[in-house]
Design brief:
The protein is α/β, with parallel strands linked by helices. The protein has 54 helices and 17 strands. The strands form five sheets. Strands 9-10-11-8-12 form a five-stranded parallel β-sheet, sandwiched between helices. A four-stranded mixed β-sheet has the order 1-4-3-2. Strand 16 (about 880) and strand 17 (about 885-890) form a beta hairpin. The longest helix is centred in the N-terminal third of the chain and has 30 residues, at about 295-320.
């Protein structure tokens, strides 16, 4: 074997620190890591071996050529005597040069390379250091993170946890030392064979560490033709194994990357040489040459990286000692002259500053042990003090000539070293300080004062001071360092979060804590949220998440993180927050505003052709006259052809609430199928009203499998989980929604929060955070507010001497603090000035937010600038100033609750009435333009109640306002709100309401009875109709309530009672009871009416005048309802009822129910054998129902016409399609009964035509699921459903 003398580019086989730290081995490991991705992607063994061959070739292509060497004891050459012939060998560890080495053959080298390529990287990644660039803003110390150039992965490394102490693995097999990876790992210099260097060797080495860099430049400038002979060996080897290196696709990109990085140069310095190299450019002499803040910031930033890597070096040495791999660094070696730095300049990733200086990147910092150094490692405190002296010189750029006055026991005992890198115990004990001489105190302050005068940030001055304080152990200050782990953690924070932990804090006259709006201690929850969203995007199986937790746990903050995730996938993000008391909202506005924003987003992002496609789909889904146009204004822009045709939600609906739910679900379906991914957050959904809960539930069920991702946030404490909400939540739990529950913060998370709020190291705030965690039980909102409260009271303050936040821990421990956050908020509000308290109370009466128009009107009413008051409250953290003071929102609903409950009950009512009157005066001017203001005024008046009315004459006005607001709520499809408003209106009438306000009373009771019927509050229907019957002056005034009561009986499945009640009403009208279908006179009358209709064309009938007789319209409506019931329970009477309806229609004119009238009579003709005439009337009914006033009955007309009439003349396939259209029309109009009936008839017709039984069974089971979801029990009695069940 060929003998060889190692040089810096050789790769050495073997173990130990000296081999592991050999420059060639470090380069080799970097090459291996850079090509692992290509190796992993290679599918064939030949391709994998080609990657290894490429690495072999790269080593041999270096200048001087690198070789693979192994120790050969059989060779007796004395390498030490030949050192003078090889200048580069001076950079090597002496133990390497005392051994004999030989070159290994290529095959053995390739086996070694393949083995290293297959190794898995199990390390926790160490954060990368900032790139040292001079392009910094004046005065700033923020660090930008950049990874070293990677040959296989050029992407930026994202650093996640700057607080954690990074673990570093053993790259060599045990007991090998650690390696450098990607510029992140700092190595420690040690003796593999426990042999010290001679002083001459050390001096010779230092002279070459920063030897003329021209040698490196000369090496890189050598002619490319001078390639090592080993290169030909590689080519021969590749030919022998059948590979073409140039043709291998895996190797081209990597080779190109190496060429691009060839311009990078390595430089090595001692610490003092590094300081000297920069000192001519960065002068800290404040008398002669005060440097710019930019230069100063860059120097501090660079020096911080060196300090961090030096600390990491010492930590690694201690870790190795603990694992039995070598000796730690001697105490005497920790000096500026023994600290070595390797830096890299240039390369494709270099940033050139304005001064054209190349950027410098610190790669290594290690400590060199020189001959003559004492082997004692000293105690931890002694070593910390030694590092303090090094850092003092580093940041002051001067040798402080500090005397080493350590006690002897600190220098000698290795057993005293604390090898633990874990955080120290933080039990609340304080050290006793020994007496110190005035001279000692003066020197310590003199050192730190020198740093401050040089512009070094206060926090960094304190860090150095706390290191120097270690020499006084065991009588040092409490802030003194106790371990290198603590020092390393603090340096990491300064490097990676300089704005918080490095920059000087601002000290105003009245300092307030600025608590970062970060999520502390929620890493697992954030990860789960991210995984759920990515799973939704990938396969759509997960449709959202449900975030639960107590008040102030951070649910809203976690949900808001979805915005950044949605943006990453180029999606739409929308959020709706439900108000606890909903004092200022118009019905369903929380959700309809969200849909309005969604329509605007889609309109902005879509092209003309896309908008045409979307409009066509919306027309099909919503109908040609969608009632949504009135509640979602931007929908008009997506459906321009419908402009001018919009109607209220109730005018064309049987049940506008059911219709609204269906239409909004369809709107979301169409938009989601034509847009980017959509994320919708419903925050504080436990506060949602019943109508909103039903709507959100429908959206969740209907959007399964779409691109819409839902986030539901709710409290799960007993007070918030109402029976209504619990009932609603039960079926929601069956949906594919991932649950995320937020528990209280851990002590460590609270410490992180407090640490960043106070701009101090976590080790310094741990005692305080332990106390506050115990007092707040880890509730994030409680912690934040308590910090603000303690600052306000002076328990947390700024220490002007130390330029940092400080606190009185003993006083805080003894302080009586409220047991819950609500009481704490109450106490904090009570400490405010009277003006601020009143301003918060005004806002609390209005609701969770106050908009600009309300502010202006209330300011006029109250006589002071409410906007200015709320701005001051925002500065103190109680309110949030939105869009330049155009709106103010309470920072949390607990603050809202605290401000509201500070007022006595009577004062609340008086304020509500006063504010309601002020808003009402303005809102009545133009309700259409500011409906929100109108509803806010009415709600304020209702919150005040009848007892707050000062003038009795106002009661009539307030009752009328509630009637108007209730009717508008019905138009907006919110019957729950309407029912409540009607009840409030009745409450203002008083005991003599029927005498003083007869018509108003009649209108309110009629309205509340009908709303109760829609809401299925049947007991309330009976109560209110009985009052009307008792107090109404005539039958006509009773009629509306009587019909409502009759319909309620039908809803309650009391059909016999419903029929009798209908007959009673008909008798009051003077109508004869219907005759039996066997009556001969009845048949004759039917034929006569048919002859009349035959004499009229379809156009003549369609163009008949509209009926103006309201009484007759009500009578026809009553007959139609009765006819429908009789079809199923007394069909022999249905013929006479149908005849009477057509007679009244021909006499008085057309009405909204005329299509049903003609359909019923057409059915009578078909059963009488007059099929042609019956089918004609059926088709006529289908034509009449397309009129705007009759659209709500389209589903029932289709159902009856095709089931009773056109089945005799139309193909079955057409009948199926017609019933499916009837099902869709019923959903659009909120006619659930006939929508379901049409769907059932479509399934039955498919069954009759012989469709696949498998498909029929599936359709029936889906149909049964819909029945169960909607609680429509009546259909379960159908024979085919009983058979399927």
């Amino acid at each position: 074997m060929e003998s060889a003398i190692p040089h810096i580019n050789d790769v050495l086989f073997g173990r130990g620190t000296s081999v592991n730290l050999h420059p060639g081995n470090r380069q080799f490991r970097s090459l291996v890591e850079s090509n692992k991705l290509a190796f992993t992607k290679a599918k064939k063994n030949k391709q994998k071996r080609a990657v290894a061959a490429y690495i072999y070739n790269e080593i041999q292509s270096m200048r001087p050529p690198g070789r693979f060497l192994e120790e050969d004891p059989s060779i007796n050459t004395n390498n030490a005597s030949m050192m003078g012939a090889f200048p580069t060998s001076a950079d090597l560890h002496p133990s390497i040069l005392t051994k004999n080495w030989s070159v290994v053959d290529p095959e053995k080298a390739l086996v070694k390379i393949l083995k290293r390529l297959r190794e898995k990287d199990s390390r926790v990644q160490v954060p990368v250091e900032p790139v040292l660039t001079q392009n910094m803003t004046d005065g700033g110390f923020s660090a930008s993170h950049s990874k070293l150039p990677s040959k296989s992965n050029p992407e930026e490394f994202k650093f996640n946890d700057t607080r954690a102490m990074a673990e570093v693995d053993h790259h060599e097999n045990p007991p090998a030392k650690h390696s450098f990876e990607g510029g992140n790992l700092v190595v420690a210099q040690a003796q593999d064979d426990r042999q010290s260097w001679s002083s001459d060797d050390a001096s010779h080495l230092q002279s070459h560490l920063l030897h003329d860099n021209r040698s490196l430049a000369q090496q890189s400038a050598e002619p490319e033709g001078q390639v090592a002979s080993g290169g030909s060996e590689v080519s021969k080897y590749l030919e022998r194994i059948g590979l073409n290196l140039e043709a291998d696709f895996l190797l081209h990109d990597t080779t190109q990357q190496v060429e691009q990085d060839a311009s990078q140069h390595l430089f090595e310095y001692t610490l003092r040489q590094w300081i000297g190299a920069l000192k001519p450019e960065i002068s800290f002499d404040t008398v002669t040459s005060l440097p710019s803040s930019t230069q100063r910031a860059q120097y501090v930033k660079s020096a911080l990286v060196i300090a961090l890597k030096l600390t990491e070096c010492i930590l690694e040495a201690e870790k190795d000692e603990r694992n039995g791999h070598g000796n730690p660094i001697p105490l005497a070696s920790i000096t500026p002259e023994n600290v070595l730095i390797r830096a890299r300049k240039g390369g494709q990733h270099a940033v050139v500053s304005e001064s054209t200086e190349e950027q410098e990147k610190i790669e290594f910092v290690w400590v060199m042990s020189s001959f003559g150094d004492e082997s004692a490692t000293g105690s931890v405190m002694a070593r910390l003090f030694a590092v303090g002296k090094v850092l003092l010189e580093l940041f002051s750029t001067k040798d402080p000539h500090m005397e080493d006055d350590l006690p002897s026991f600190h220098k000698a005992s290795i057993d005293a070293i604390n090898l633990s890198i874990e955080a120290e115990d933080v039990s609340p004990t304080r050290k006793k300080h020994r007496w110190r001489s005035a001279q000692s105190l003066y020197k310590d302050s003199e050192y730190t004062a020198a740093l401050e005068s040089n512009g070094v940030p206060w926090s960094l001055c304190a860090l150095v001071k706390n290191l120097l304080e270690c020499r006084h152990d065991p009588f040092c200050d409490d802030d003194a360092y106790a371990s290198f782990a603590d020092l390393y953690a603090d340096l990491q924070l300064m490097v990676y979060n300089p704005a918080c932990f490095l920059d000087n804090i601002h000290i105003p006259n009245n300092p307030r804590l600025a608590i970062p709006e970060n999520l502390y201690g929620r890493d697992e929850e954030l990860l789960k949220l991210k995984e759920s969203y990515e799973n939704h995007i990938t396969d759509g199986k997960i449709s959202g998440v449900v975030i639960s937790g107590g008040a102030g746990a951070g649910k809203s903050k976690l949900a808001s993180h979805m915005q950044s995730l949605t943006v990453q996938f180029n999606g739409y993000f929308l959020s709706a927050d439900f108000e606890q008391n909903q004092m200022s909202h118009k019905p369903l506005s929380t959700i309809t505003i969200l849909f309005d924003s969604l329509c605007e987003m889609l309109l902005t992002d879509s092209s003309g052709s896309q908008l045409m496609k979307i409009e066509n789909e919306l027309m099909s889904a919503l109908g040609s006259q969608p009632s949504l146009l009135g509640v979602v204004p931007n929908l008009r822009k997506l459906m321009p052809s419908c402009l001018g045709t919009e109607t209220s939600a109730s005018s064309n609906c049987v049940d506008s609430a059911v219709s609204m739910r269906y239409l909004l679900c369809e709107l979301l379906r169409v938009i989601s199928s034509n847009s980017k991914p959509i994320t919708i957050v419903f925050d504080d959904i436990q506060f949602a009203d019943h109508a909103s809960l039903l709507l959100v539930g429908s959206l969740l069920f209907k959007a399964q499998g779409s691109t819409t991702f839902f986030v539901l946030c709710h409290r799960d404490d007993g007070a918030s989980m109402s029976e209504q909400f619990t009932t609603w939540l039960r079926p929601i739990a069956m949906l594919p929604l991932d649950p995320i529950r937020l528990e209280s913060l851990t002590p460590e998370a609270v410490n992180n929060l407090i640490s960043e709020a106070l701009h101090l190291s976590p080790r310094l705030t741990r005692l305080l955070s332990t106390v506050l965690h115990r007092k707040t039980r880890g509730n994030p909102l409680f912690v934040r507010q308590l910090l603000d409260s303690l600052t306000e009271q002076g328990y947390i303050y700024i220490d002007l001497k130390q330029h940092r936040w400080a606190w009185d821990l003993e006083m805080i421990i003894e302080l009586e603090i409220s047991e819950n956050v609500l009481a704490l908020f109450t106490n904090d509000i009570q400490r405010l000035s009277s003006d601020l308290q009143f301003g918060l109370q005004v806002a609390a009466c209005i609701g969770s937010y106050v908009n600009e128009s309300m502010l202006n009107y209330l300011s006029t009413e109250l006589g002071f600038d409410l906007k200015n008051i709320l701005q001051q409250a925002s500065e103190k953290g109680f309110m949030i100033d939105i869009d330049g003071s155009t709106m103010f929102r309470f920072a949390h609903d607990k603050i809202h609750q605290a401000a509201y409950e500070l007022m006595p009950e009577r004062q609340r009512r008086e304020n509500h009435m006063r504010f309601g009157l002020a808003l009402c005066t303005q809102s009545l001017i133009n309700i259409a333009e500011d409906e929100e203001l109108f509803f806010a005024a009415v709600n304020q008046i209702n919150q005040g109640g009848p007892t707050a009315v000062l003038e009795p004459s106002q009661k009539n006005v307030f009752a009328q306002l509630n009637l108007k607001a209730g009717k508008r709520a019905i138009e907006l499809s919110d019957y729950n709100t309407a029912f409540t408003l009607f009840q409030h209106g009745i409450s203002f009438l008083g005991d003599d309401d029927w005498k003083s306000y007869y018509q108003l009373s009649l209108d309110l009771y009629d309205a509340v009875a009908e709303a109760a019927l829609i809401l299925n509050k049947l007991a309330d229907v009976t109560t209110y109709t009985d009052i009307v019957v008792l107090n109404a002056r005539c039958f006509d005034d009773k009629l509306h309530c009587l019909i409502t009561a009759t319909r309620a009986l039908g809803v309650a499945y009391r059909q016999e009672q419903s029929i009798r009640a209908s007959f009673a009403i008909l008798a009051q009208f003077g109508e004869n009871l219907p005759s039996d279908m066997g009556d001969d006179n009845l048949s004759h009358e039917v034929d006569q009416m048919n002859n009349i209709l035959r004499s009229m064309s379809d156009d003549m009938i369609c163009n008949m005048q509209e009926s103006n007789d309201k009484k007759m319209v009500i009578l026809i409506s009553l007959y139609e309802t009765l006819a429908h019931v009789l079809q199923y329970f007394k069909p022999w009477l249905a013929r006479a009822v149908s005849l009477r309806m057509i007679e009244l229609t021909m006499k008085t004119g057309l009405s909204a129910k005329s299509p049903l009238v003609f359909a019923h009579f057409g059915g009578v003709l078909v059963t009488s054998g007059q099929i042609t005439d019956g089918c004609r009337l059926g088709r006529l009914a289908l034509k009449l129902v397309e009129r705007s006033g009759s659209l709500q009955y389209k589903s029932s007309v289709i159902c009856f016409t095709y089931d009773k009439i056109l089945w005799a003349s139309e193909p079955f396939q057409l009948i199926v399609e017609a019933h499916l259209l009837g099902h869709k029309s019923g959903q659009q109009s909120g006619d659930n009964i006939f929508a379901i009936h049409n769907l059932l008839l479509a399934i039955l017709t498919d069954y009759v035509t012989g469709q696949s039984l498998v498909a029929i069974e599936k359709n029936i089971l889906d149909f049964i699921s819909k029945l169960e979801a909607q609680g429509l029990r009546i259909f379960f009695k159908h024979p085919i459903l009983l058979l399927a069940s």
